[in-house]
Amino acid sequence: GQNIDQPTEMTATEGAIVQINCTYQTSGFNGLFWYQQHAGEAPTFLSYNVLDGLEEKGRFSSFLSRSKGYSYLLLKELQMKDSASYLCAVRDRDYQLIWGAGTKLIIKP
Amino acid sequence: GAVVSQHPSRVICKSGTSVKIECRSLDFQATTMFWYRQFPKQSLMLMATSNEGSKATYEQGVEKDKFLINHASLTLSTLTVTSAHPEDSSFYICSAGQGHTEAFFGQGTRLTVV
Questions:
Q1: Using beta carbons and an 8 Å cutoff, which residues of B are at the interface with A?
Q2: Helix (H, G, I), strand (E, B) or coil at A100
């Protein structure tokens, strides 16, 4: 079966750095996505990785290792508004998105 | 980036009535759109894949006669929840992709059936 694993909840301090991990086992691989979802809102796109390595976008970076079936989302200089759920999704060989359950990130002052 | 607009954002309906949700791609043509449902504190669950000009592909366990999908043009897909019941209350989200790189989401529709 296909599976995406990420921690259920994480807590971090404002101004700090946090890394949210995602491991996957899917039928084929055509890219990995990270989305941010605030409560009651639709997800918003953060990053896309299809090749190994680190993609940096401002305070957010995403890393991918296809051989390990592993990705992480790195958030720097945390702000209170970063409190949200972070969803990892993998596009399989049929180009269907397989979703993780999301990681609820709680930022404390 | 590409924009997907979903309407309405919130709807309250009586049990037994039908509700239509629209999903539009505003600045690109979407041959395929996706409909998701999300219950509180849970991840997105794909309900169906909407294909322009042909029948939608439903995921296992999703009743196609209850959740009617119409994708009549390259910019519009609609989801109609027929004979809604309280257990259909959920957050419904559509998405559309542009090429194979990104998927863009509508704002979501909060459906409450009373």
A1: 1, 6, 34, 42-46, 49, 91, 93, 100-108, 110
A2: coil
Q: Is the dihedral of CA B108, A20, A49, A57 positive or negative?
A: positive
Contact A48 B101 (CB under 8 A): yes
Q: From the CA of B54, how many Å to the nearest CA of chain A?
A: 18
**Residue found under tokens 């890219």:** A31
Instruction: List pLDDT tens digits, range B77-96.
Output: 999 999 999 999 999 999 88
Over the stretch B5-63, which tens digit does the pLDDT of each residue have?
A: 999 999 999 999 999 999 999 888 887 889 999 888 778 888 998 888 888 999 999 99
User: How many angstroms separate the CA atoms of B56 and B6, rounded?
Assistant: 18
- The span from the CA of B85 to the CA of B36, in Å, is 18
Q: What pLDDT is attached to residue B98?
A: 59
Which residues of chain B are within 8 Å of residue A42 when distances are taken between CB atoms?
6, 93, 105-108
Q: Does the CB of A46 have a partner CB in chain B at under 8 Å?
A: no
User: Can you tell me the distance from the alpha carbon of A109 to that of B80, in angstroms, rounded to the nearest whole number?
Assistant: 44
Cis peptide before A109, with omega less than 30 degrees from 0? no
